[in-house]
From TrEMBL:
Organism per entry: Thermoflavimicrobium dichotomicum
Name this protein carries in UniProt: Putative sporulation protein YyaC
Length: 184
């Protein structure tokens, strides 16, 4: 799957995101196993809450084809990421892992949702040395890169992060639903 990006406020953002995810999942024979959504971040930082918000929205949808790690009540972050990755490998060895995380970028890119093939390196923008994880990823650019990334993430607008999380979770759910419908 080639990389893809869409503005979170694009009128067709959910639809466009679901099309890309559907294509990727159908190439990976998703229907023979479950999708693990690893939603990385923390509820202690507005900008870094994108992943846990997506995980929470997904868990509220009660979609049985998705296994969710990382919600507002049980976040996956730098301190427990290694353990969660080990848990996933043990409990779901043949599942495909979609990683969702927030990131910082250029000012002009704030609000972009990027989808890509391959693993994601969480915490890279903050110079954290965390393990790469996932088969493909969705990352949302929630604010601009600066000299103090932690401060920037603390002061990121919640409305932007919340809105991006709604689009991402809706896109994931729509893709999974389309794949389930096509199999019936």
């Amino acid at each position: 799957m080639e990389s893809f990006q869409v503005e979170y406020d694009h009128v067709d953002a959910v639809h466009l995101l679901s099309i890309k995810l559907t294509r990727f999942l159908s190439q990976k024979a998703f229907l023979s196993s479950k999708l693990v959504c690893l939603c990385i971040g923390t509820d202690r930082s507005t900008g870094d809450s994108l992943g846990p918000l997506v995980g929470t929205f997904l868990s509220e949808a009660d979609e049985s084809a998705i296994i969710i790690y990382g919600t507002l009540s049980n976040p996956v972050h730098a301190m427990n990421l290694d353990q969660i990755i080990n848990n996933i490998k043990h409990a779901h060895p043949s599942s495909y892992i979609l990683v969702v995380d927030a990131c910082l970028g250029k000012y002009k890119d704030i609000g972009l949702i990027k989808v890509g093939n391959g693993p994601l390196s969480p915490g890279k923008g903050l110079k954290k040395n965390l393990p790469e994880v996932g088969d493909f990823y969705i990352k949302g650019i929630v604010d601009m890169m600066g000299t103090n990334g932690m401060y920037i993430l603390q002061s990121t607008r919640l409305h932007l992060v919340y809105s991006m999380a709604k689009v991402i979770s809706s896109g994931i759910l729509k893709a999974v639903d389309q794949l389930k419908s096509s199999k019936e």
